[in-house]
Amino acid sequence: MRHVSCAVVSLLLTLLVPATVVAKGPADAYYGRGTTNVVWFLHISDLHIGSSQVEDPKQLATPHFEFALQQAIPVIDPSFVLASGDLCDGSQGVLPTVGQQQDEWDAYKGLYTKAGMKADFYFDLPGNHDAYGESNGLPHFLNNALQGQANGKPYVSWSVKVPDGEMLFFGLNSAGTGASPLSNPPGNFTDDELDYVEQTMAAHAGAQLVIMAGHHPLQGATNQDRVEKAFQAAKGGFYLHGHRHDYTEYLGGGDTIVVNEVGSLGKSDTDNVGVAVIDHNALVYRATSTSKPWPFVTITAPVSAKLRQGADNPYAYAVCKDRKDNPVRALVFSDKKVSSVTAQIGAGPVATMKSSAPDSPVYEAEVDTSALAAGNHDVTVTAKVGSEQATQTLSAKFVAGPCEALPVDPDPPSADGGAGAAGASGSGGSSGDGGIAGSAGASGKAGGGGAGTGGKAGSAGAAGKAGAGATTQADPQAPEDDGGCSCTTAPASGPGTAAWAAIFAALALRSRRARRTRAAR
Fold first, then answer.
1. DSSP secondary structure string, 267-305?
2. How far apart, in whole angstroms, are the C-alpha atoms of residue 129 and residue 140?
3. Which residue in 434, 464, 433 sits closest to 447, CA to CA?
4. Which residues lie closer than 8 Å to 12 by C-beta, 6 or more apart?
5. Among 52, 362, 372, 445, which lies 20 to 30 A Cα-Cα from 480?
6. Which residue from 87, 158, 13, 15 is spatially nearest to 495, judged by alpha carbons?
7. How many CB atoms lie within 10 A of CB 357?
8. Highest mean pLDDT among 53-57, 192-196, 413-417
9. CA 270 from chain center: how many Å?
């Protein structure tokens, strides 16, 4: 298989692939055809490794974390994994919240190391249980967590690029600089990390979406207002957290932030493995359970008009009903071969859904909705795996025509073109060093990368799926050995000589690939 360099592939994705819609902000979510603007990731929280027998008689923490690493990741094949705090229990083997114990951290570190987690794929954040007994920073997190070791900071940013543009992610530290034993302090976002957030957002002003995660909910946290102002600057966005061991979806920040909380991985059996999907700028979030994980279905288009707890979805789009071929998309995850997947809208005909590519979990169908009345209608997807089945139903808004032509995604990268997007160098720092590799996109494997600014040559990125390749961006303070490709990209001020050379190389490559004409909205 022939691989194209990281830099060339990145430029192909960001400069040369024509997006059909220019999206900026969650309100620009849209209904489209195709899968190259679909990407998903895994969210876990509240692992509580080291929980004592007294508070956790079932001793779920370690086996559930092993399930996430060894079973959920291979089945879900996410672009990355987010672990939003309470990585360890901080109980010293007896009483929760007493303080840090190195044995707990050794166990946590051993589990993610054994599973082969790398800093460009596994983003772990601190929670209050990781801060108990600390008073001058979070040394146990920094010395043992994967991101703490890689970046030397308790916060990090990275990005994912699809043909429509860039999605900017922040993993925040809501645990402050420490917590007193036997306490339960509210969240504390530090000034230095929020300075970093604001600087990074300014450097990525063209990002189409901003997604942040922390351990605590925003409500009541120190510097809550600064976090919400950052979201306001991005025209709204999405926040993910844990802490309360609940599976909820609600609105924050004056109804401009859609918030999702996942159940505790270490102390619960249900709703504790979250999957977030971004489908044409719309973020959809559902959780499966360690007790019965598969099959698992999540509908990604059309988007639900309601959040899970019943509030109106402020970023839901309407679908023109007067089409005979309205697309329905869903992700179906199973550790066994999927027997069938069907879609139905309202009382209309049942349509067979087909996988978008061999071994892809993305299923699609075109459904005739022309006989529907305008209004909200149920969209139901059912997946069967042998004698088992899983079903999801949501309510989407349909409006009368005339209907415009739907935007259509560009084709996925071909297998011989190298599907992985380049890892970007860290922004916001003086030298922009510490960039890391993205995962592969459709059909391809990410090639091993050359050395970036201040970074060592890396190994191949994670395997990808039928969709866009993920471009990960490290915290600018990352050390040299980040464990992945350290490809550099053009500076924010504009492409230099090397970048222009890459552009011309990419143009030459693209000119050899014919693309069929597609309708635009």
1. T-SSS-EEEEEEETTEEEEEEE-SSS--SEEEEEESPPS
2. 11
3. 464
4. 4, 413, 417, 506, 509, 510
5. 445
6. 15
7. 15
8. 192-196
9. 21
Looking at residue 362, its pLDDT comes to: 99
* Residue in 294, 290, 300, 242 with CA at minimum distance from that of residue 268: 290
For residues 13 and 375, give the distance between their C-alpha atoms in angstroms, rounded to a whole number. 37
Residue 220: name the closest of 174, 272, 276, 251 by CA: 174
Q: Where are the beta strands (DSSP E) in 55-204?
A: 81-84, 122-125, 156-162, 165-171
The model's pTM: 0.80
Question: What is the spatial distance between Cα 412 and Cα 146, in angstroms, rounded to a whole number?
Answer: 32
| Residues 62-120: tens digit of each pLDDT | 999 999 999 999 999 999 999 999 999 998 767 778 888 999 999 999 999 999 999 99
Q: End-to-end alpha-carbon separation of the chain, Å?
A: 36
In angstroms, the Cα distances linking 137 to 77, 114, 223, 227, 407 are 34, 27, 17, 20, 48
Q: Domain-by-domain residue ranges, the chain?
A: 19-294, 319-399
Q: Please tell me whether residue 242 adopts helix, strand or coil conformation.
A: coil
Question: Is CATH 2.60.40.10 the right assignment for the domain spanning 319-399?
Answer: yes
Span 267-306, pLDDT tens digits: 999 999 999 999 999 999 999 999 999 999 999 999 999 9
Distance CA 233, CA 415 (A): 38
pLDDT at 414: 63
Q: What Rg value do the Cα atoms of the chain yield, rounded? A: 22
| 410/354 Cα distance (integer angstroms) | 19
Check if the beta carbon of residue 39 is closer than 8 Å to that of residue 160.
yes
Assess contact for 11 and 503: CB atoms under 8 A: yes
3-state secondary structure of 194: helix
Same fold, 19-294 and 319-399: no
DSSP state of 312: B
Instruction: Report the CATH number of the 19-294 domain.
Output: 3.60.21.10
CB atoms within 10 A of CB 359: 9
Q: What b/e string do you get for 185-221 counting C-beta neighbours within 10 Å, with b at 16 or more? A: bebbbbeebbebbeebbebbeebbbbbbbbbbbbeeb
Q: How far is CA 42 from the centre of its chain?
A: 6
Q: DSSP of 453-468, one letter per residue?
A: TT-----------SSP
Token code pair at residue 257: 């932030």
The answer to whether 272 and 86 are in contact (CB under 8 A) is: no
Amino acid 447: pLDDT = 33
Q: How many CB atoms lie within 10 A of CB 389?
A: 14
Residue appearing with tokens 């043909």: 163
